[in-house]
Design brief:
This protein is of the alpha+beta class. The protein has 14 helices and 22 strands. Strand 5 and strand 6 form a beta hairpin. The protein is globular and about 65 Å long.
């Protein structure tokens, strides 16, 4: 039968619920409250992007908030994680492998130029090209012609006419359209290819918002966005724009929202966990989101590869009292992890084989550590855990390293970096001296998205260079499985490989803990914990 976008949404590996602050809609694109002041600027928190704002090279949350606000893909996600057509008129296939994409007429970039089939095909080819070294290139590896080893055109992409292009995948994928709301699949205007680095400093998008001026990005401070008058999609802004402020600490951001100087905060600091719900009432939220938290151990460090490394990874995992930390430090705003995904993602389970390695077991931890020492003594080596100080992580990092030190009898300390970008740079450049905080916020609502970008061989966010042929094969089998049930089984088996190898030590799943000031209404947090900024009203 012909598979259309609506049909795919029904079988997709979707998230389970919206996260809502203040009385408003349940996740549609239209607000049921008064429109407010259509010129009012919404202020919210953020962080300095790691890279220029090119969609295929933006994989962290600071840049992601901005890129998603400035670009529109073929589809977008509702608060519940369901897809709805945005730039696309239709996405159709008879066999789930050969797809025809038709665009809506009249779509434009913020500079007034047309969004065409070439806008997508050229952007995807740029993102996939090996020599362009885009961090999201692997998102195109299921399209014919992709190569991880050399420059190669995506031969599976063909422009039919200005509003139509076709996509040939290497194998059938029934839920392929579910990916297409992620920013890596955004279109680019012709002007972008003249100087991509310069474009990233002042991007021209086709989404709800655009730069307020050429100097809208004040680095390390803020970014100013205003409504893009050319956008006519499902995320039409109900306000006049966004000012995203880059805070050095969550405590400062929280103080600003308390004082009414910040409208929306999407991450309450741990110092306020006990009080924020009472203080903000129905303007506070504490509900599950598609966020996984853990820490990674680089394989290039002495003691952390081979059989010795496998023993130490298991020992250190069992040395962490997750229940106590989530209760005492996080006041119930986190849930101890039992897998590598999230409870809001279909397919999540707490019954994976090998998941006992995530349970606090000090006796077994000491035993495994001793076995590793018999291979090569750890001696006086200090175990450090890197984290970004601008993200409110110190309290839990201190608790984790104390749990490790007390259980294993070793020296363990936290290693703060001033910013998220600085911490990522050392990860990317193999300069870590120990473990590193590693979190993942879903790009699209699928188990695959929590696994492939982080652990697949050569993937853009696999900074610690984990590689397992068994894991990769299970991932590929899941991606082309004929049903959601078959795909889920393969992805669960792939996670069981991860639980043996432990390239990342799962810690917990995060709830979104957000608040809004009484200056705004219609604040909805989506399946991925990010506010639906376009729905917020003010005044």
């Amino acid at each position: 039968m012909k598979i259309k976008r609506i049909g795919v949404a029904a079988i997709a590996l979707a998230a389970s619920g919206a996260l809502v602050l203040t009385g408003c809609t349940s996740g549609g694109t239209e607000s049921t409250e008064s429109a407010g002041d259509a010129t009012a600027i919404i202020t919210t928190n953020g962080s300095e992007p790691q890279n220029p704002l090119v969609p295929t090279n933006t994989t962290e949350t600071g840049g992601g908030k901005i890129v998603t606000s400035m670009f529109a893909g073929l589809v977008s996600y509702t608060a519940e994680g369901e897809i709805e057509n945005d730039v696309a008129e239709s996405i159709e296939s008879d066999d789930s492998q050969h797809w025809t994409v038709t665009l809506k007429e009249g779509q434009k970039f913020s500079d007034g130029t047309d969004v065409t089939a070439n806008s997508f095909v050229d952007a995807w080819n740029y993102g996939a090209l090996f020599s362009n070294a885009q961090s999201s290139s692997y998102f195109f590896d299921n399209i014919e012609g992709f190569s991880y080893e050399a420059d190669s055109e995506l031969t599976g992409l063909k422009v039919v006419d200005d509003l139509t292009f076709t996509v040939d995948l290497v194998a059938p994928e029934a839920d392929w359209p579910l990916r297409l709301g992620y920013s890596a699949y955004s279109p680019l205007p012709e002007s972008a290819f003249e100087d991509m680095e310069a474009f990233g400093q002042n991007p021209i998008g086709n989404g709800p918002y655009m730069f307020a001026s050429e100097d809208a990005w004040t680095h390390e401070e803020k970014i100013d966005l205003v409504v893009n008058p050319e956008y006519d999609g499902v995320r039409k802004a109900q306000n006049g724009g966004l000012t995203i402020v880059f805070y050095a600490s969550q405590d400062t951001a929280y103080a600003d929202v308390q004082a009414g100087n910040l409208d929306v905060l999407d991450a309450v600091p741990d110092s306020a966990f006990e009080t924020y719900e009472d203080e903000f009432g129905d303007r506070a939220v504490n509900q599950p989101a598609a966020i996984f938290q853990g820490f990674n151990m680089p394989y290039y460090l002495e003691h952390w590869s081979g059989e010795e490394g496998k023993l130490r990874r298991a020992a250190i995992s069992m040395a962490i009292n997750r229940d106590e930390i989530t209760d005492v430090i996080f006041q119930g705003t986190r849930t101890p992890a039992t897998d590598y995904t999230s409870p809001v993602i279909a397919g999540w389970t707490d019954k994976l084989e090998g998941a006992e390695v995530l349970a606090y077991n000090p006796d077994e931890a000491k035993k495994l550590w001793a076995e590793a020492d018999a291979i090569a003594p750890y001696g006086d080596t200090v175990f450090d855990l890197a984290y970004n100080a601008d993200g409110g992580h110190q309290a839990w990092v201190d608790a984790v390293v104390n749990s490790i030190a007390n259980t294993l009898g070793i020296q363990a300390v936290g290693k703060p970096y001033p910013t998220f970008a600085a911490a990522l740079d050392d990860r990317k450049n193999d300069k870590l001296t120990g473990g590193t905080r590693a979190g993942w916020q879903g790009d699209y609502p699928s188990m695959y998205n929590f696994l492939a970008p982080l652990y697949q061989t050569g993937a853009g966010s696999n900074y610690e260079d984990y590689s397992s042929e068994e894991f990769d094969n299970l991932l590929k089998e899941g991606a082309v499985a004929p049903s959601v049930e078959d795909a889920t089984a393969k992805f669960q088996q792939a996670q069981e490989v991860l639980l043996k190898d432990l390239p990342a030590i799962p810690l917990w799943y995060s709830n979104v803990t957000g608040v809004s000031a009484d200056t705004v209404d219609n604040v909805v947090f989506g399946w991925d914990s990010v506010p639906l900024y376009h729905q917020i009203t003010k005044g």
